[in-house]
Design brief:
The strands form 3 sheets. A 7-stranded parallel beta sheet has the order 3-4-2-5-10-1-11, with helices on both faces. A 7-stranded parallel beta sheet has the order 14-15-13-16-17-12-18, with helices on both faces. A 4-stranded antiparallel beta sheet has the order 6-9-8-7, sandwiched between helices. It folds into 4 domains: 2-113 and 190-243 and 381-425, P-loop containing nucleotide triphosphate hydrolases (Rossmann fold, 3-Layer(aba) Sandwich); 115-189, no CATH class; 245-378; 431-635, Rossmann fold (3-Layer(aba) Sandwich), CATH 3.40.50.300. Strand 8 and strand 9 (371-378) form a beta hairpin. It has 639 residues and is α/β, with parallel strands linked by helices. It is built from 26 helices and 18 strands. It binds iron/sulfur cluster. Iron/sulfur cluster binds next to helix 6.
Length: 639
C-alpha cells in the first residue's frame, strides 16, 4: 500500500501527471498511509487534518486501491452537499485515472434518498396525461421524460434544470406502490450499479437510516460494505441522534388507519369483519386520545418537557397488538407495508412509554393547538453505533475538528469507537502571519443587557475597518435578528448589503453574494458555522459574538446534562466545553480556506478573558497574532 501511495502521490507520481504544478504534500501522504494501513489491518482510525491538507483525496486513494484490489465496497459519507459534489465530480474521476495508470478499473456510485430520483411509472403516467398540454408544467414533464429515457438520468440534480417541488412530488420515487418492479425502474438500476461499485458515496443521514433498517431486518438499501469512511465526522453526533430519534403522535396512527381502511382489498372484506375491525379501531383511537390528552394536560403550558417517569401505554399497545394480529390472520393482500408501519408505531410507543434505557433522552412536546408528540433519542451515537457498526467493519472518522485539548477521547467516547489508531495533522496555512484573533478588552458580559448594544457598536467599528467581506456567526436566531434589525439601517446608510439567514433561505445564494460582492456582510446561525467556503480575499473578517456553547434549553441537551450530573461528573467540562470547542473550531475555520486567505477573527465574548477556561480556548485554536483592540485589525487585513 505504501508503495502505491508513493506512486500515486509522490514526486513525479501519477497525480503529478494529472495536475499541473503538483507538488507532494507530506500531511496528505501521511493521512493516505494511515488510512491504507487501517483498511489493511481492519482497524478503526480517527484522523484530524487541518483545512488545506487535501484529506479527501488523501483517503480516497488508499480506499479505492484497497477496494479494487480486494473486490470490496467502501462507503464514503459526507455531511454537506458541496463536499459530496467535490468528491464525486472532481476527486473520484481523478482517483479513477490514477488507478487506470495502475491498470485497474474503479467503479463508484453516488447514492441519495429515494425522493431524489424519478419514479418511471409515475413519470410515464404524467407524460401520457400531459402529452397534449402546452403549459409550462407539461413542457417540463416532456423534458424530464426525454432525459430519463434517452440519457437514463433520473436524479433531480442531474437533470440540469429546475423542477418545482409541486411537480417533483408527483413523480418522485419517494413512495413506491409497486409490488413487482419493472426493468425500467431507475431505483432498480441504481441498486445494480451499487452492487458492482467499489466506492459508494452518500450522506450521513442516508447511511444512518440504512443502518436502522439493517439493525431491524438484517438488510439495508445499501449493498453489503466492508469499510466506512465518515468525512465531516464532527457532524455525526447530531445527525445520528436525530435519525435514531423515535417520535410518536396520534396522527401517525390515524393516518395509517385511514390508508388501511381505504385499501381496496380491505373494503372487499365481508360486512361482519369490517364492522368488527372498525370497532377495534375506534377503541384504539379512544385509548390514544385519552393517553395524549392526559400527557398534554401535564405539560402546564410548556412547549417541551423531559419525561420524568414512565407513561402507561400498556393498554393502548395491547389493543394495537390485538388489531395487528387480527388483521394479519385474515391474510389480506397488498397491506403488509401498512401493517409493518403500524407495528413499528406500536413498537416505538411501547419503547418511549417504557423509558427503560438510561442512555436515551425521553421528552414530550406540544405544538399548535395541543398537538402532543412523545420523543425518545439516544443521548450520544455510542448507544447505537457500538453494536451494528464499530463491531462489524473498520470505520475511519475524519474532520478538521474532532480533537479537543489535543486528544480524541471526548469524540471517541461519544461516538463509541474503542481501540482505534489516530493521526493529527495541522493545516499548512500560515496562521501566525495571516490571521489575528481579537478579543476586545472592553467587551461586557455576554449575558448582560449591554451585550447586544455593544455588539451593534462593535460591528459598526469593525465594518469601518473591513469595508464588508464579513461573516458574523451567531448562536441564536433571536439575538441575530435583534442585532440585524438595528444594524440594517447603518448598512443601508453606508452602502453595504446585509444578508441574514432565515429558515428556508437559499444558503448558496447568500454565500455566492459574499464571494462576488465585497460590500457584503452575512449574518448566519446554525448551519453557517460549517460548510461556508469562501476562499481568498472575499472574506477577511469573521466575527463571533458569543462562544457557541450548546443551548441548555434543548431537550436532548438537558437530558445529557442530567445524565452526566447524576454520574457525579462535571457537565461543563465533560460536555459543554468540548462541544463548544468543536463548534468554535468549525466557525473559526470559515476564515482560512486557502493559502491566499488573510484576516481577523473577532470574538466579542469576554469569557475568553475573564474565565479560567479562556486560555484553553485560545490554546485550542491555531497559533495566530493576538490583540485586545478592534483597531488592530487594520494591521492584518489584506491591502
Ligand atoms: S418500482 Fe416503484 S419506484 Fe420503480 S418505477 Fe415502479 S413504482 Fe416507480
Amino acid at each position: 500500500m505504501e508503495d502505491f501511495i508513493n506512486r500515486a502521490l509522490g514526486q513525479g507520481g501519477h497525480l503529478s501527471k494529472l495536475v499541473k504544478g503538483y507538488s507532494p504534500r507530506a500531511p496528505q501522504i501521511l493521512i493516505s498511509t494511515k488510512v491504507g494501513n487501517a483498511l489493511l489491518q481492519g482497524r478503526h482510525l480517527l484522523a484530524e487534518a487541518g483545512t488545506g491538507t487535501g484529506k479527501s483525496l488523501g483517503y480516497l486513494i488508499p480506499a479505492a486501491q484497497w477496494a479494487v484490489a480486494n473486490n470490496k465496497t467502501v462507503v464514503i459519507c459526507t455531511h454537506t452537499i458541496p463536499l459530496m459534489t467535490q468528491i464525486v465530480n472532481e476527486e473520484l474521476p481523478r482517483v479513477e485515472q490514477i488507478l487506470k495508470m495502475e491498470k485497474k478499473n474503479l467503479r463508484y456510485q453516488l447514492v441519495k434518498g429515494k425522493s431524489h430520483y424519478v419514479c418511471n411509472t409515475k413519470l410515464e403516467a404524467l407524460w401520457q396525461e400531459t402529452l397534449r398540454g402546452a403549459n409550462e408544467e407539461s413542457k417540463i414533464v416532456q423534458r424530464i421524460f426525454k432525459k430519463v429515457n434517452q440519457e437514463r438520468i433520473g436524479d433531480r440534480t442531474g437533470l440540469g434544470f429546475d423542477v418545482e417541488d409541486s411537480l417533483w412530488n408527483k413523480i418522485s420515487a419517494s413512495s413506491c406502490p409497486a409490488i413487482t418492479k419493472p426493468d425500467s425502474c431507475l431505483l432498480e438500476e441504481l441498486k445494480e450499479k451499487m452492487q458492482k461499485s467499489h466506492i459508494i458515496v452518500t450522506n450521513h443521514a442516508y447511511f444512518f437510516s440504512d443502518l436502522i433498517m439493517r439493525k431491524k431486518t438484517g438488510n439495508g438499501s445499501l449493498p453489503a460494505y466492508e469499510a466506512v469512511i465518515f468525512d465531516e465526522a464532527h457532524e455525526i453526533e447530531d445527525v445520528c441522534c436525530n435519525i435514531f430519534e423515535k417520535q410518536v403522535d396520534i396522527n401517525r396512527f390515524e393516518t395509517l388507519f385511514e390508508y388501511l381502511f381505504k385499501r381496496e382489498s380491505f373494503s372487499a372484506l365481508d360486512h361482519g369483519t369490517q364492522l368488527d375491525l372498525t370497532q377495534m379501531r375506534q377503541n384504539i383511537e379512544k385509548k390514544l386520545d385519552d393517553l395524549y390528552t392526559k400527557v398534554g394536560r401535564s405539560m402546564e403550558n410548556n412547549a417541551f418537557k423531559l419525561m420524568d417517569e414512565k407513561i402507561d401505554v400498556g393498554d393502548v399497545c395491547q389493543a394495537l397488538t390485538e388489531f395487528i394480529e387480527r388483521v394479519r390472520s385474515l391474510n389480506i393482500r397488498g397491506i403488509s407495508d401498512l401493517l409493518d408501519r403500524l407495528f413499528e408505531g406500536n413498537d416505538d410507543l411501547d419503547f418511549i412509554g417504557d423509558k427503560e434505557k438510561k442512555s436515551w433522552g425521553y421528552w414530550v412536546t406540544v405544538r399548535g393547538r395541543g398537538k402532543v408528540t412523545l420523543h425518545a433519542a439516544p443521548l450520544f451515537p455510542k448507544v447505537v453505533l457500538s453494536f451494528g457498526l464499530f463491531d462489524k467493519v473498520p470505520v475511519i472518522l475524519t474532520s478538521a475538528t474532532i480533537s479537543t485539548n489535543g486528544t480524541f477521547s471526548f469524540f471517541a467516547g461519544r461516538v463509541g469507537v474503542k481501540d482505534y489508531d489516530s493521526v493529527m495533522v495541522g493545516s499548512p496555512f500560515d496562521y501566525e502571519n495571516k490571521t489575528m484573533i481579537i478579543c476586545p478588552e472592553d467587551a461586557p458580559d455576554p449575558d448582560s443587557q449591554e451585550f447586544i448594544p455593544y455588539t451593534i457598536e462593535a460591528l459598526k467599528e469593525i465594518l469601518m475597518y473591513s469595508g464588508g467581506r464579513m461573516l458574523v456567526l451567531f448562536t441564536s436566531f433571536d439575538t441575530m435578528n435583534q442585532v440585524a434589525k438595528k444594524f440594517q439601517q447603518h448598512c443601508i446608510d453606508y452602502g453595504y448589503s446585509l444578508l441574514t439567514q432565515y429558515s428556508g433561505c437559499d444558503r448558496e445564494k447568500i454565500i455566492y453574494q459574499l464571494k462576488t460582492d465585497s460590500r457584503t456582510i452575512v449574518f448566519g446561525c446554525s448551519s453557517f458555522w460549517t460548510g461556508v467556503d469562501v476562499a481568498g480575499n472575499a472574506l477577511t473578517t469573521l466575527v463571533i459574538p458569543k462562544l457557541p456553547f450548546p443551548m441548555p434549553n434543548e431537550p436532548l441537551i438537558q437530558a445529557q446534562l442530567e445524565l452526566i450530573e447524576k454520574a457525579k461528573r462535571s457537565s461543563f467540562f465533560d460536555f459543554m466545553f468540548p462541544k463548544m470547542m468543536i463548534k468554535l473550531k468549525q466557525g473559526f475555520g470559515r476564515l482560512n480556506r486557502s493559502i491566499h486567505c488573510q484576516g481577523a477573527v473577532i470574538i466579542l465574548d469576554n469569557r475568553i478573558r475573564t474565565k479560567r477556561y479562556g486560555k484553553m480556548v485560545i490554546k485550542s485554536l491555531p497559533k495566530c497574532k493576538y490583540s485586545g483592540t478592534l483597531e488592530d485589525m487594520i494591521h492584518i487585513l489584506p491591502v
